[in-house]
Specification:
The protein is mostly helical and 179 residues long. 79% of the residues lie in helices and 0% in strands. It contains 8 helices and no strands. Helix 2 runs parallel beside helix 6 and helix 4 packs antiparallel against helix 6. The longest helix has 35 residues.
Length: 179
């Protein structure tokens, strides 16, 4: 299962690199076309905005797995293990609630977005805003899995330390090896 998770997130990271590269090439190409050839591709502006939305929401899922979203680490770091676990559980419960609301809102807007089309490309706006399904489901599943590990007592010390903003044992080793 961990192997599948690793490769899934590796693919997501590659997709993010591809999205960023495509976005960069479209914007750079458009700048060159405008200033050198006095022309441009209108489609590149629209597509780069759409890719930015997908990049942002895909990145949110990847970052959620690595527990790198903003948190109140200063407060949590002062707590003991039980306090940290309680804060982690509370945080994940709120996260799951937000993901449910976000998924439901995306669901409610899906029919409307499916009938609106982008002015230049003609792409259904559901393809743009539908990323809310992926993002809310991905982050929600990550939070639910962590809640399950907390309920069954399988949270590792490294996971709790990462939640508190501390270096994990693996990260500390890497830091020691750096010159």
């Amino acid at each position: 299962m961990q192997r599948l998770e690793h490769w899934t997130f590796r693919v997501l990271e590659i997709v993010m690199v591809a999205l960023l590269a495509a976005m960069t090439l479209m914007v750079l190409g458009n700048v060159v076309l405008r200033y050198v050839f006095d022309s441009g591709l209108v489609v590149s502006e629209e597509l780069s905005r759409f890719l930015f939305v997908w990049l942002t929401f895909t990145g949110a899922v990847v970052v959620a797995r690595e527990n790198m979203h903003l948190g109140v680490e200063t407060l949590v770091a002062m707590l003991g293990r039980r306090g940290r676990v309680a804060c982690l559980v509370l945080s994940d419960l709120i996260t799951v609630l937000c993901c449910v609301v976000f998924f439901w809102g995306t669901w409610q807007q899906a029919e409307i977005n499916a009938t609106f089309y982008a002015p230049v490309t003609g792409i259904s706006m559901l393809w743009v805003y539908g990323i809310g399904f992926f993002s809310s489901a991905g982050i929600g599943l990550i939070a639910c899995a962590r809640l399950w590990r907390a309920a069954t007592g399988r949270l590792s010390d490294d996971e709790i330390a990462a939640f508190a903003g501390e270096l994990t044992a693996e990260a500390a080793k890497l830091k020691e090896q750096m010159p």
